[in-house]
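Notes from the pairing session

We agreed to fold both candidates in a single pass and log them together. This is the raw record for the first candidate, unedited. Please don't reformat it; downstream parsing expects exactly this layout.

Candidate A
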Amino acid sequence: MKILVLSDNHNDLENMFTFLDRLKDYEFDVIVYAGDFTDIGLPKGFSQEDIAKLLIEELKTLKKPIVAIPGNNDSQEVIKLLEKENISIHGTGKIINGVGFYGFGGAKTPFNTLYEPSDEELKKGLERSFIQVMNVDKKIQVTHNPPINTKLDITLTGMHVGSQIIRNFIEKYSPTASISAHIHEARGIDYINKTLLLNPGRFAEGYFGIITLKDGLAEGSLFNLIE
């Protein structure tokens, strides 16, 4: 299985359609969107739900199963839309072709953004979603916030700002791969024990990733649609 990993479009309508069209040149079986469909600075005449709906409809044209979580900049209306579209793995799990996808969105920040669940909410949400897929061998964890003390949570100032809860969960359950986003400058690949970690980077800048599952292992690749 090849998993297309996208995140952090942040209201970018100008580039979204061009970049999504270019994805048709790549091979993948499932699409994972790791949050921040939207942002607070909305284009005139659009709501967050409008923009998220546009992005989801464009993703549907790729004709592959989609799973998604909200980011810290996504509103409750976006969260409800993901549920309505039956693509949400925010606090729940889905099994696609024998692979279990589970997760929980949002992220705590210093900026009082729209969706910042507490550590307790995050822990309970991950536990609730994991139960839905616990009986399959290959599991993909999807969170907006990265695990702490990895290559994926380092800001431009050199601080590690990820989540201890998410790291603990990976260390306890050893999913095949863990997808996160949120820290745009920390686009990259890392590992916690045998679990592949991948932050695809900001899709609004043309970045995305692909995870390949083979023989029970995960390999990650990063791409830029502008190059």
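Candidate B (folded immediately after A)
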Amino acid sequence: MSATRRIALTGGIATGKSYVREQFERLGVPTIDSDQLSREAVAPGTPGLAAVVERFGRGVLQPEGSLDRHKLAAVVFADKDARLALEAIIHPAVRQATERWFKSLDPARHPFAIADIPLLYEVGRDRDFEKVIVVASAPETQVRRVMERDGASEEEARQRIAAQLPIEDKVRRADYVIRTDGTCEETDRQVSAVLKELSALREGC
């Protein structure tokens, strides 16, 4: 095998991607989190943070100089052009870091690995992966989770969800779908089933 096979994990905001990624990791599959890479791309002292300040001003910073993600979110989710400008700053760094990570893996030990990329379809990165797993839940479940998790109003929650492709559009394009409206145990069973299928693909090659 010449390289670790690339599997993408995606879905909508607050559909449970992080939980699903953690379950794959627990079962021995290497994973990488694009949200974490995005935070690292705009950490204090990085070119990414400097570019964000140049574009959005110092009003998006905390008093000590780190990025205030809530203030920035309020700007970019209300303005498509602002959101695209932020993505143009962050996405190249995330993509490069993801590429380095996959290349660092030993295919003999890790025949496949998973990258959690929330905006996979929106930015056309699905073409970079052999298979795509979509984590999905009902839109009303997403709204409730965003409000509970982020302290957002219902309007803000719906605004953030609307900034992404509708979840059922992603489901239609997926190779595998994991639905998270049920219990953790139900989600875990779906993760195990997808892992079994991915392992069978590996064994069949």
